[in-house]
Amino acid sequence: MSWLLRRNMLPLHSNSLARRPFASPLPLPPASLPSPRETHIWYVVPDELKDASLLYQYMELLSPCERQSVLRMNGERLQKGALLARALVRTTLARYTDGRLSPKSFKFQKNRFGKPEVEWDKYDLWAPPPLQFNISHTSTMIACGVTLDLPIGIDIEEKQRKTSNNILSLAHRYFSPVEVAYLKTLADPECRQSEFIRLWTLKEAYVKALGRGFSGTPFKDFTIRLEASNSKQVTGELKSDAPSIVVEAVDDPGILMNRWQFALFELNNSHYTAVCMERDVKNPADGENNSLKLEVWRTLPFVEDECVTETDAVKNIIR
Amino acid sequence: MRKRGTPPNRALRARRPPEISPTVRSLPLAFSLSSDRSMASISGTVTATSVRPRLTSRAPVVKGFSGLKSVSFSIQRNGFPSVRLQAAPRRLRFQVSCAQAKPETVQKVCEIVKKQLALSDDTPVSGESKFSTLGADSLDTVEIVMGLEEAFGISVEEESAQSITTVQDAADLIEKLVEAKSS
Predict the structure, then answer these.
(1) Boundaries of each 4'-phosphopantetheinyl transferase N-terminal domain copy (chain A) (predicted)?
(2) Can you name the residues that pair with A260 across neighbouring β-strands?
(3) In B84-166, where does DSSP find H-type helix?
(4) Nearest CA in chain A to B21
């Protein structure tokens, strides 16, 4: 990364561009917009990036401010992760603009609670799609979720993640009483460990979907749990017997916050992934399965994209 | 330019810039030669800060004051920043907005953070280090808070925990709570 530092200080001469074959990267294949109840997820596995020249391509996409943030990260591994995260957001969003916007041209702002969102320019003859996104990363994967005009939160955690503190201590401190009680019912420590992580990702995804930050939506104030199907408010075709993930306020138990829908699954056999999306009330489904739909792609931007939705890379889905 | 046959990673690591990064904010508080001489009477503690990127070996680097909250920077023509403090005769006055933690506390926080984030011993962590730039996610942060509570025998309120973004923040809060507890 220190090499990149130096390079940023050099003026860009045309002959130096000519030396670099990546001056015009491969165009990103366009993607169809997500439908109303759909979340699209694009994920990158940093270890799959073997070609250092790709890092330069990605760096070119970032704003000066983003570059500085990347370089502030402590160490090359974290810098690479931060760089990939920004490159993933930019390239993913660009795919949905039908070739009209390049990854480099996106601008971002923060909502009043600090949640990042796209700052769209005004165009005369084209209305950009009202995309919303959210991103999450671990050291071994970065994931970006995209919806059409619906708030979304995504969180990923390594399945093997171990906590330094005792699970029940953490839960007592940060989870709601119902959630603590649930974890206590699990006698097997490994099971308890993995359920803790899965519950953590769900709670994180919810907080991120709300966009009010960790402090705006304290973990202790809400419960996420499975709700049996007979009290589901909507009926589905195939999934009507499956329990669904619901969220309720600790102060108002029994009143489900139906505005939010969830999906929890395993990604790439390595990560628990939780998605929380606002339910689309503008397009209510009649007699149709109203649960959250997923489309998932594994990507290495400018190199390859692979749709993995119906594969083993996405499994054990609970909605 | 990379020579043919050089593996990419080695080329990336081969060059260490002697210059300073474009951002002023991330720089350690470095003093140029002249100002250093005049500050012979500096009292107060010096803690190691992460010197990133590295300055040339010639420049004497006073690596930072744990108590320094407000500084003004100016960039000289050679690109090295100099720092001006408001100097009173015989005594340096620092603009500080609140009490600063002891270096031992900062050190202990650094240890706990390094352990939680599994950072190597030679990873530079100091009061100025932000948890986010060290790679801490929200679960790491809550685990760090719990680790600190255990190590210092204190209890941190959620609202206070949210305001911690750097190691220094954590150390300051700890000392405040320890003091409140003992009084």
Answers:
(1) 57-142
(2) A278
(3) 103-116, 138-152, 158-162
(4) A5
Strands A260-267 and A314-318: antiparallel
Q: Are A70 and B21 in contact (CB under 8 A)?
A: no
CA-to-CA distance for B115 and B110, rounded, in angstroms? Answer: 9
Among A84, A164, A193, most B C-beta atoms within 10 A, so best to mutate, is A164
Res A11: pLDDT: 37
- Tens digit of each residue's pLDDT (9 = 90 or more) over A253-269: 878 888 999 999 999 99
Taken in order of first residue, the domains within chain A and their CATH numbers are 3-7+37-318 (3.90.470.20)
Whether this model's ipTM surpasses 0.85 comes out as no
Residue A274's beta-bridge partner residues?
Answer: A155, A264
Sign of the alpha-carbon torsion through B87, B93, B96, B102: positive
- Which band of pLDDT confidence, cut at 50, 70 and 90, is reported for residue B1? low
Residues of chain A positioned with their CB less than 8 A from the CB of B142: 170, 173-174
Q: Average pLDDT of A186-193? A: 95
Higher pLDDT, A64 or B76: A64
Query: B133 and A74 in contact by Cβ < 8 A?
Result: yes
In whole angstroms, how far apart are CA A115 and each of A68, A136, A210, A211, A214? 19, 13, 9, 5, 11
Rg (chain A; Cα; Å):
21
Residue A71 contacts residue B21 (beta carbons within 8 Å): yes
B103-144 residue pLDDT tens: 899 999 999 999 999 898 888 899 999 999 999 988 998 899
